[in-house]
Design goal:
Immunoglobulin-like; four-stranded antiparallel β-sheet; single chain; mainly beta; 10 strands; 172 residues
């Protein structure tokens, strides 16, 4: 009887570990190179629960967010934005107080909050805007898997940094 009780306790501990090893309900294969590969569960829709607690933005070309005295517009190619490599065009407009020429750098950072990882490299920085149309293109942003992605656009003006955060639930 004691042996069966010990086996049951061991099984419960192992089961508990398997269900709490990662923040999501997905199974995982961890690679030794620091990568993170996720397998899909049959019948599991990764877009249902991975954005829990976050306000998901509905993607449309030119979706906008405020970042301090600036409005940031985001457009993906291919469109609509989806898991995989995307070219992301960031367009900026300024309020009466701010000037686009005051921006010294624009950085984009992609991150999966539920999984606590992003692509490699996780961020790209551009130091020059096209003054012709106040926009720039971040090429080959690797949104490599379905799920909830947070894309931060950080604008640097002098000592100030303002961030526009976009949250998308991407499908495969």
């Amino acid at each position: 009887m004691l042996k069966k009780s010990m086996q049951l306790v061991a099984l419960l501990i192992i089961s508990s570990y398997c269900f709490t090893a990662c923040d999501s309900e997905e199974s995982h294969e961890h690679k030794h190179d620091g990568g993170h590969q996720h397998d899909e569960h049959m019948g599991h829709d990764d877009t249902e629960d991975t954005c829990e607690g976050l306000t998901v933005d509905m993607y449309m070309d030119g979706v906008t967010k405020e970042a301090g005295d600036y409005t940031v517009s985001l457009t993906a190619s291919p469109t609509p934005i989806d898991a995989g490599n995307s070219n992301l065009t960031v367009s900026l407009t300024a309020t009466d107080v701010a000037r686009i020429s005051d921006i010294s750098a624009v950085k984009i950072t992609a991150w999966m909050p539920a999984h606590e990882h992003g692509p490699t490299p996780q961020e790209q920085t551009e130091l020059e805007l096209s003054m012709e149309n106040n926009s720039l293109v971040f090429e080959d942003v690797d949104l490599f898997m379905p799920g909830c992605w947070k894309i931060d656009i950080e604008l640097t003006t002098g000592e100030n940094k303002d961030i526009a955060s976009f949250i998308f639930s991407l499908e495969g």
